[in-house]
Amino acid sequence: LALAETLLERREALAARGAALSPRILAGLGVVALVGVIAAVGDPVSRADDEWQEFKASSAPAASGGNRLLQTGGARYDYWRVSLNDLADAPVRGVGAGNWNLSWYQSRRTGDDTRQPHSVVFQTLAELGLLGGLALALAVGAVLAALVLRRREAESFALLIGAGGMFATWLLHTSVDWMHILPGITLSALCGAAALLAPWRGPSGARGAASYVVPTVAVVVAAAGFLTVGKVLRAEHRITDGQELLATDPPGANAKAGDALALNRDAIPALYLRSAAYAQVNDFVNAKAALLEAAKKEPGNFVTWQLLGDLQIRREVGRGFDEAGAAPFYRRALELNPRDAELRDLAKFPFLGHPEFR
After folding, report:
1. Helix (H) or strand (E) holding 300
2. CA angle 168, 170, 176 (to 5 degrees)
3. What band does 324 get if pLDDT is binned at 50, 70 and 90?
4. What pLDDT shows up at residue 207?
5. What average pLDDT does the structure give for the chain?
6. Is the CA virtual torsion 95, 97, 100, 106 positive or negative?
7. Is the pLDDT of residue 77 over 50?
8. Strand partners, 201
9. Residue 222 host element (H or E)
10. Could you give the CA distance from residue 194 to residue 167 in angstroms, rounded to a whole number?
11. Could you tell me which of 60, 90, 93, 63 has the C-alpha nearest to residue 76?
12. Which whole-number Å values give the CA distances from 334 to 58, 103, 298, 305, 307, in the listed order?
């Protein structure tokens, strides 16, 4: 706040004297800045080309302790390539929230195991398509518009520095990394955005109609979110409870899986939990049926096919070790995740490649 007040006083002093930078001064500063950049990095064209080639190479990231924001190594190019492929396959609606990783495992060029493309922009475009991208652009545009409109309000200059800086920093980092999935960081950015968008007063200081409309719309949206996203979160809680019961109370775990599916019928982890609960009591028919239902809902999920192979291995133990039942499941899993070394072994020799029999 002290810095903001100092900047505000300086700005007002300059305005009072009518001070302004002439075009010549601005041009001179530009030349000095360009000379400084060339002195620091050498040939900027060659440096940019080197950084681009390093970025495309999907090399291992630099050692920890550096500036992650400025690193060009890593697998981001591969993450974003898969995201753009998803957008091309489903340009309007995307591949569905949380489904980016299905495409990733099938077409990745690196061995990274990840569930999202390390960018809120690319994740939105891949999973929610152009409609989601438009919604994100409108949300970000509203905050940036507030920044522009409030820059001339002297009494809001401190707010502009604080709240605007919080949101801009979040937007910069989360556009090239996974910071948006950290609730505390994203909440801080949303608080900054809310502070910028909150005042809805007219020139006379009286509240305008928007000051009543916007909170009403926000309450409606929050209620809709509770009825939709809230159900998904409650289903995940039931799954967690069921996993804790799995070893000691398989029927109880199965009941928790049923509760989760009642809240979210597309909860694949709930079907995994149900299958595991049946397998605990050697009910392999129902255990397999639960996994086949999961495969029907998400045929591109390699995990389901690998679990089907594992279940078949467990069933065949003591029955002659017939590998024919498990091998097709492992081969299908390998097709969906071709860079997995363990799946390659399991697809060739289901029993010898299985960790339980090594």
Report:
1. none
2. 110
3. low
4. 56
5. 80
6. negative
7. yes
8. 207
9. helix 210-245
10. 10
11. 60
12. 22, 13, 15, 9, 12
Distance, CA of 75 to chain centre: 15
Compare 325 and 140 and report the one with higher pLDDT: 140
In this structure, are residues 271 and 258 in contact, taking their beta carbons and an 8 Å threshold? no
> What are the tokens at 27?
């041009």
Alpha helices by DSSP H, the chain: 2-17, 23-41, 44-56, 76-89, 100-107, 120-150, 157-174, 183-197, 210-245, 250-263, 268-280, 284-297, 302-316, 327-336, 341-348
Beta-bridge partner residues of 207: 201
Residue 252, class by beta-carbon neighbours within 10 Å (0-12 exposed, 13-18 middle, 19+ buried)? Answer: middle
- Which helix or strand (DSSP H or E) is residue 179 part of? none
Report whether pLDDT(20) > 60. no
Tokens of 243: 């996993």
Instruction: Please check the confidence at residue 280 and state whether its pLDDT lies above 90.
Output: yes
pLDDT at 1: 46
For the four alpha carbons of 132, 135, 137 and 140, in that order, the dihedral sign comes to negative
The DSSP result for 109-151, as a single string, is: SS----SS-S-HHHHHHHHHHHHHHHHHHHHHHHHHHHHHHHT
pTM, to two decimals: 0.72
For residue 187, the number of C-alpha atoms closer than 13 Å in the C-beta half-sphere is 3
Can you say how many angstroms the Cα of residue 105 is from the centroid of all Cα atoms in its chain?
Answer: 16
Q: Write out pLDDT tens, residues 27-68.
A: 776 777 766 656 665 666 565 555 555 556 655 444 444 455
